[in-house]
């Protein structure tokens, strides 16, 4: 039976069996699975595993399988962004994080499904079909890193990398009952991450326990001179794995527990905050007054960036090509057929928002709102160490329920996007169940203060049992 | 001399200069030395626009741009950033060009050129950094192409786009400005004009009473002059017939020497500029002092120094400094022989012979010209022989002494000339009579006969004097 | 308000062919999202500076040192339409 394994568990198993057997059992689980978490399997995974069996090492992830969201470039392994546009694209280079993983001895088992070009919150807008939530396959896994979260929940991969532009690792972690972190902007090199919205997104580690998040961060975080927005800063994340939150100050932003919240989710989140209080933390209500406006500002910026980032997909050098009688027609046809509806909508709106006459009204306005959002966080962190609230206002919704109404999906990101606008780090950890579906607790830290988040999260995890529950059929 | 500009011609230029003396491209580590390489061999994820690739700014490109700005008397901006200029074209691998928008790296400069009626100051509006697109090869003509081939080796090369105010009043002034600019850029060692595509020019031009048109795709200074001459004629004709000159972009057809309208749906743009989110701002004004100290002596300063240091004429100095290598060559020669004579021979003769053969000064050795000038000074060869030596050096190589000896160009002794004159006068009584009867050409004939007898080694002016004295 | 003509203009700017029978549908969809964006108008941001980058990095530069490039095969390996080492596309006009 598939099982949840931490990095520690996995290494133990490799010691007892072999990396080859561990990898092959994951590949087997993936093969038999019906949740559709993967877009492609790394055909060389077994070969890589054999290599580590022959060359036993004490590398931090020696022989440990990892799945990778399909917008992170992997040399020799298709990287499709779950888009028809890139169905046959095989990058000739590795993303920075992939180099780091290989250096740490990890084995890439495959690429995980996602909303096309990371534009969505349900992992339904994929050219290879929807990913299903392992807790209830009639529900979505969240998104856009839904394939990664579902793969973890279904025991198809012990650890994973996602990316988070506006909640894309936290939303699926919350819906699938796993752990994910979006680090401070600039912490992990974006080199090789296929851009959706450059100044908002970060690659984020995903796992089934808090400690693994710290371990992955220790491997993939750090300065990279190929990313001009990369920050020079040495942090040991594992050092923050401390089961003690005595005296930590928690802020609870009233705006994150808003009118639209599912009352069951609200209760679970308050229970979690009270649990932290029992564990010695102190909490108080704080305000992030601009939260309401963060969502439209976020979408304007993300769509504007996207309209430019995705311009390179014109059928000329790689990816899909649909012939036309001249180059411009070819490009227009290629893009019409290569992109799905949501991607097209965002490109069109982004093009509009940047076009002559509307630039200031939308794009510049959104950048100013971003300043206000950032000021909100700066003010809040004057008084508290971390902020806590629900990651998502509700449990995972049904497949197909919102797909016809784009705005209703946009709204689900409301608690997540302020974090990306401000560039601060944030994590989602399991904190309970409503209607048998997982609920995520969001812990937000100040810029570069991942340590406080990890410490809070680890204390909570070690003193509760929510992370020990598994979907049916998973050990 | 005054220039009235009766048509009210106003020309502004936009010059794209490839900073091809850098080792690498603007935003990636690909080598700039692609000019004789197969297509698509100087590319990487960044300049090929592969998804996930990110740009990083070449520091030397920024410093080169600043140096150009300083040489053009510009101000350096306090803070700037790169923007994305969004448009679709197959040579643009990302669907946008990383360029600069509202804060160019340098602005508000000026350059003095020799105008139609004396010195003319051309104001520089701005110069900004951007990346070069790839190169398209149309199979067939651009409008009836069967297909297009793309080479991205050029993609991502650092470009500096220099924009002038519309201070230029004639095609000739435009050309002189371009020559001057090229000269300055070469002195700065940021640019090698001999490489293909090193400098491309767009020209804005308007006449009194008409709108402005923009001419694109001009690839040489001569082309700029021709395109502008054609466009002035075209606009004049329209205005004369009472028609209007509309604002539009026109394409210069180098082969036919005409400009044609480019209006089509593909040419409509809304560039949707926004700050490049993958790059952070630049605050580099504090490097100005350091760069100023690194600036080399520029053409105008060099010209003044040559005049005062070597007492050469303004005209010679100008000719010498208009090419840095020639100026340096001259100074080496001038350190060993009479600088004034050297200037005459290098500026008046050697430079012309090089241009005629499309050669650079690299084809010539300092020691040969030193020897040549020495022989001229010592009256060992005639001016005419000296020219022949230079031509032979450039055409067939060798060294100066060898050529002089092999061709027997050492000037003949005076008594040999005297003897030849005696012989010729003895043999050509009729010609003497003709000359005495006022037929001037007869003298030329007699000189020619003497030259023939001395196999050209006599000085014809001296021969002429001798004959004229004898038969007076 | 985005009109059907706007949809056609934007889709051309974005090089996404849209069947003219669908312009109306697109216009409606886009307008409903734009309506939602309109709420930003409620905020007075006249004295607020825009934030392009959350960090305050400046002058991130690299030295002018050559790094290896792709081989021609690597450069072209994801492209089916090529000729003599070039990418090949239809004519421009």
Automatic annotation (TrEMBL), chain B:
Any one Gene Ontology molecular-function term assigned to this protein's record: asparaginyl-tRNA synthase (glutamine-hydrolyzing) activity
Enzyme Commission number(s) of this protein: 6.3.5.-
SUPFAM superfamilies: GatB/YqeY motif, Glutamine synthetase/guanido kinase
UniProt entry tagged with the keyword Ligase: yes
UniProt record, GO biological process: glutaminyl-tRNAGln biosynthesis via transamidation; translation
Gene3D superfamilies: 1.10.10.410, GatB domain, N-terminal subdomain
Main enzyme class: ligase
Top-rank taxon: Archaea
Domain Asn/Gln amidotransferase: 328-471
Catalysed reactions, as listed in the record: L-glutamyl-tRNA(Gln) + L-glutamine + ATP + H2O = L-glutaminyl-tRNA(Gln) + L-glutamate + ADP + phosphate + H(+); L-aspartyl-tRNA(Asn) + L-glutamine + ATP + H2O = L-asparaginyl-tRNA(Asn) + L-glutamate + ADP + phosphate + 2 H(+)
Pfam families: GatB_N (PF02934), GatB_Yqey (PF02637)
Keywords: ATP-binding, Ligase, Nucleotide-binding, Protein biosynthesis, Transferase
Keyword field contains Transferase: yes
Role played: Allows the formation of correctly charged Asn-tRNA(Asn) or Gln-tRNA(Gln) through the transamidation of misacylated Asp-tRNA(Asn) or Glu-tRNA(Gln) in organisms which lack either or both of asparaginyl-tRNA or glutaminyl-tRNA synthetases. The reaction takes place in the presence of glutamine and ATP through an activated phospho-Asp-tRNA(Asn) or phospho-Glu-tRNA(Gln).
Family: Belongs to the GatB/GatE family. GatB subfamily.
Listed PANTHER family: GLUTAMYL-TRNA GLN AMIDOTRANSFERASE SUBUNIT B MITOCHONDRIAL AND PROKARYOTIC PET112-RELATED, GLUTAMYL-TRNA(GLN) AMIDOTRANSFERASE SUBUNIT B, MITOCHONDRIAL
Subunit structure of this chain's protein: Heterotrimer of A, B and C subunits.
Name the UniProt record assigns to this protein: Aspartyl/glutamyl-tRNA(Asn/Gln) amidotransferase subunit B
Organism name: Methanosalsum natronophilum
Encoding gene per record: gatB
């Amino acid at each position: 039976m598939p099982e949840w394994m931490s990095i520690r568990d996995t290494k133990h198993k490799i010691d007892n069996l072999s990396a080859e057997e561990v990898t092959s059992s994951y590949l087997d689980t993936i093969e038999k699975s019906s949740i559709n978490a993967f877009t492609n399997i790394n055909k060389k995974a077994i070969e890589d595993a054999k290599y580590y069996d022959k060359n036993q090492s004490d590398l931090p992830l020696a022989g440990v399988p990892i799945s990778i969201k399909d917008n992170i470039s992997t040399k020799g392994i298709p990287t499709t962004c779950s888009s028809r546009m890139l169905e046959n694209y095989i990058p000739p280079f590795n993303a920075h994080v992939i180099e780091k993983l290989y250096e740490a001895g990890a084995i890439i088992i495959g690429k995980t499904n996602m909303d096309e070009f990371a534009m969505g919150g349900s992992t339904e807008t994929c050219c290879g079909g929807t990913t299903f939530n392992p807790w209830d396959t009639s529900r979505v896994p969240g998104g856009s890193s839904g394939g990664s979260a579902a793969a973890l929940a279904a025991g198809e991969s012990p650890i994973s990398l996602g990316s988070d532009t506006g909640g894309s690792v936290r939303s699926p972690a919350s819906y699938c009952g796993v752990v994910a972190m979006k680090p401070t902007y600039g912490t992990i090199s974006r080199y090789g991450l296929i851009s959706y919205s450059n100044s908002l997104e970060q690659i984020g580690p995903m796992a089934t326990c808090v400690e693994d998040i710290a371990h992955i961060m220790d491997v993939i975080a750090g300065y990279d001179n190929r990313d001009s927005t990369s920050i020079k800063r040495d942090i040991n994340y594992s050092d923050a794995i401390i089961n003690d939150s005595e005296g930590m100050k928690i802020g609870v932003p009233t705006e994150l527990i808003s009118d639209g919240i599912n009352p069951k989710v609200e209760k679970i989140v308050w229970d979690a905050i009270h649990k932290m209080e029992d564990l010695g933390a102190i909490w108080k209500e704080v305000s992030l007054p601009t939260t309401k406006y963060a969502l439209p500002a976020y979408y304007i910026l993300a769509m504007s960036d996207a309209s430019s980032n995705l311009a390179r997909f014109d059928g000329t050098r790689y990816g899909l090509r649909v012939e036309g009688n001249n180059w411009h027609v070819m490009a227009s046809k290629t893009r019409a057929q290569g992109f799905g509806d949501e991607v097209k909508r965002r490109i069109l709106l982004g093009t509009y928002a940047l076009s002559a006459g509307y630039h200031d009204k939308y794009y510049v306005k959104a950048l100013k709102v971003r300043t206000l959002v950032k000021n909100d966080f700066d003010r809040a962190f004057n008084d508290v160490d971390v902020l806590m609230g629900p990651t998502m206002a509700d449990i995972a919704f049904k497949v197909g329920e919102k797909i016809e109404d784009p705005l209703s999906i946009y709204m689900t990101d409301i608690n997540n996007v302020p974090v990306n606008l401000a560039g601060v780090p944030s994590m989602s950890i399991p904190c309970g169940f409503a209607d048998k579906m997982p609920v995520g607790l969001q812990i937000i830290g100040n810029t570069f203060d991942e340590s406080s988040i990890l410490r809070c999260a680890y204390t909570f995890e070690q003193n509760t049992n929510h992370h020990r529950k598994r979907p049916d059929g998973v050990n | 001399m005054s220039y009235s500009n009766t048509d009210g011609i106003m020309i502004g230029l936009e010059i794209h200069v490839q900073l091809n003396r850098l080792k690498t491209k603007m935003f990636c580590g690909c080598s700039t030395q692609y000019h004789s390489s197969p297509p698509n061999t100087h590319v990487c994820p960044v300049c090929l626009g592969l998804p996930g690739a990110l740009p990083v700014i070449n520091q030397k490109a920024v410093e080169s741009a600043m140096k150009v700005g300083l040489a053009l008397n510009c101000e350096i901006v306090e803070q700037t950033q790169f923007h994305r200029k969004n448009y679709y074209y197959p040579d643009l691998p990302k669907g946008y060009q990383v360029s600069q928008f509202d804060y160019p790296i340098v602005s508000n400069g000026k350059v003095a050129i020799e105008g139609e009626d004396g010195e003319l100051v051309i104001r520089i509006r701005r110069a900004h950094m951007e990346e070069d697109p790839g190169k398209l090869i149309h199979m067939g003509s651009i409008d009836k192409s069967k297909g297009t081939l793309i080479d991205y080796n050029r993609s991502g090369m650092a470009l500096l786009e220099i924009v002038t105010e519309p201070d230029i009043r004639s095609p000739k002034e435009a050309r002189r400005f371009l020559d001057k600019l090229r000269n300055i850029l070469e002195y700065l060692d940021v640019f090698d004009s001999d490489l293909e595509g090193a400098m491309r020019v767009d020209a804005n031009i308007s006449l009194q009473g008409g709108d402005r048109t923009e001419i694109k795709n001009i690839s040489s200074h001569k082309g700029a002059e021709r395109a502008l001459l054609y466009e002035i004629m075209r606009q004049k004709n329209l205005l004369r017939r009472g028609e209007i000159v509309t604002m539009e972009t026109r394409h210069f057809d180098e082969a036919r020497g005409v400009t044609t309208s480019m209006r089509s749906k593909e040419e409509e743009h809304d560039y949707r500029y926004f700050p490049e989110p993958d790059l952070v701002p630049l605050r580099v004004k504090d490097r100005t002092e350091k760069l100023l100290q690194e600036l080399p002596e520029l053409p105008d300063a060099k010209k003044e120094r040559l005049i005062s240091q070597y007492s050469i004429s303004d005209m010679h100095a100008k000719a010498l400094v208009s090419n840095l290598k020639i100026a340096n060559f001259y100074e080496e020669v001038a350190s060993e022989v009479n600088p004034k004579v050297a200037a005459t021979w290098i500026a008046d003769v050697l430079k012309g012979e090089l241009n005629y053969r499309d050669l650079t000064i690299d084809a010539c050795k300092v020691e040969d010209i030193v020897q040549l000038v020495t022989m001229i000074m010592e009256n060992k060869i005639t001016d005419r022989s000296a020219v022949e030596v230079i031509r032979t050096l450039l055409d067939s190589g060798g060294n100066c002494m060898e050529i002089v000896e092999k061709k027997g160009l050492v000037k003949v002794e005076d008594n040999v000339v005297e003897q030849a004159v005696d012989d010729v006068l003895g043999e050509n009584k009729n010609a003497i009579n003709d000359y005495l009867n006022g037929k001037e050409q007869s003298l030329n004939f007699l000189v020619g006969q003497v030259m023939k007898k001395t196999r050209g080694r006599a000085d014809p002016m001296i021969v002429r004097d001798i004959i004229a004295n004898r038969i007076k | 308000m985005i009109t059907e003509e706007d949809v056609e203009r934007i889709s051309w700017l974005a090089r996404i062919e849209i069947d003219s029978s669908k312009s109306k549908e697109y216009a409606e969809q886009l307008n409903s999202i734009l309506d939602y964006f309109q709420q930003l108008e409620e905020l007075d941001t006249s004295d607020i500076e825009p934030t392009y980058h959350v960090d305050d990095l400046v002058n991130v530069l690299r030295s002018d040192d050559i790094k290896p490039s792709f081989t021609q095969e690597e450069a072209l390996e994801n492209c089916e339409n090529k000729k003599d080492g070039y990418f090949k596309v239809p004519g421009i006009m």
